[in-house]
């Protein structure tokens, strides 16, 4: 049985750093956004094609071995099939169908079996007791809850939608910018779909607010580790300092390539820098969920562990 912690929620919510920190715990491996192994790593269609270790994904010893186990001598054919299954069965709109399969109401989709096989190959190559996948697609989390041979736990990470909208206002080296209306629409859709997974499998799901994580990183890491069944000491001290080693993340924030000492702190510059019009759009569109997640209508800079 392969143990997986799958992280859902919307992008720009600190999940790359969270995953890399969990990957520092003995027995755990963070694979980044595993969904993009085939499209970016094998087919080369994305712009984010490096493994977290710095090598091209097909050249990384870990991913070369995993791809060889699953795809044999024709990785391109296998990758095309995997991407096609993702497109037809593992988008956010498919969350309900995957949940029905996980509850044995419908026959399982081949995409769920393929996911299970991929995790099994990673577990065999790494000998990891826990695989952390920060893919963030609720349909994948739903599929994993019923996938054969997988013991799945889900972590729903939420960040203030005004903060994610401000982050999306600027392009990153591997992905273009996005306006506040579109970003907040995605934020709403991904979070509502994540809630559907939690309602269906409450014992498997835990919610974590980004703001709570950066305010009390050690305590929140301990809570996540307990949820995932991961033993050991949280990989950050009381002041939020940590050290990152080499990882094998498939894709994610470019910061995943960073190694050495890091300080976990809130990025709240958006509170002062965000244009009023963009904030108004994000606030209006996200208003039905703000109170549910503990966010005020008028955000203010957050207190961090340095101020408590």
TrEMBL record:
Organism the protein comes from = Actinomadura chokoriensis
Alphabetically list the UniProt keywords: Transferase
- What is the name attached to this protein's record? Sulfotransferase
Q: Which principal EC class is assigned to this enzyme?
A: transferase
Q: What GO terms are given for molecular function?
A: transferase activity
Pfam families of this UniProt entry?
Sulfotransfer_3
Record's SUPFAM superfamilies?
P-loop containing nucleoside triphosphate hydrolases
* Enzyme nomenclature, EC number: 2.8.2.-
């Amino acid at each position: 049985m392969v143990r997986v912690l799958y992280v859902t929620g919307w992008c720009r919510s600190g999940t790359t750093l969270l995953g890399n920190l969990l990957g520092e715990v003995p027995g755990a491996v963070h694979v980044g956004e595993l969904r993009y192994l085939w499209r970016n790593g094998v087919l080369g269609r994305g712009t984010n094609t490096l493994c977290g270790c710095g090598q091209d994904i097909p050249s990384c010893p870990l991913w070369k071995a995993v791809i060889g186990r699953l795809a044999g001598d024709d990785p391109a054919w296998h990758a095309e099939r995997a991407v096609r299954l993702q497109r037809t069965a593992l988008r956010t709109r498919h969350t309900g169908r995957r949940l029905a399969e996980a509850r044995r109401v419908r026959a399982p989709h081949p995409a769920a079996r393929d996911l299970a096989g991929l995790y099994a190959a990673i577990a065999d190559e790494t000998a990891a007791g826990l695989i952390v996948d920060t893919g963030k697609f609720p349909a994948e989390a739903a599929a994993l809850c019923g996938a054969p041979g997988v013991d799945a736990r889900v972590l729903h990470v939420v960040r203030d939608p005004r903060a994610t909208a401000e982050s999306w206002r600027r392009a990153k080296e591997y992905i273009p910018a996005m306006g506040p209306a579109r970003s907040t629409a995605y934020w709403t859709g991904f979070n509502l779909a994540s809630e559907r997974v939690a309602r269906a499998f409450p014992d498997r799901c835990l919610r974590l607010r980004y703001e709570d994580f950066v305010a009390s990183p050690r305590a929140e890491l301990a809570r996540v580790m307990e949820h995932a069944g991961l033993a050991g000491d949280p990989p950050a001290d009381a002041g939020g300092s940590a050290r990152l080693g080499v990882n094998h993340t498939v894709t994610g924030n470019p910061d995943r390539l960073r190694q050495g000492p890091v300080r976990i702190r809130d990025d709240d510059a958006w509170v002062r820098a965000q244009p009023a019009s963009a904030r108004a759009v994000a606030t209006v569109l996200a208003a039905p969920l703000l109170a549910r997640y503990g966010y005020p209508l008028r955000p203010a800079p957050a207190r961090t562990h340095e101020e408590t």
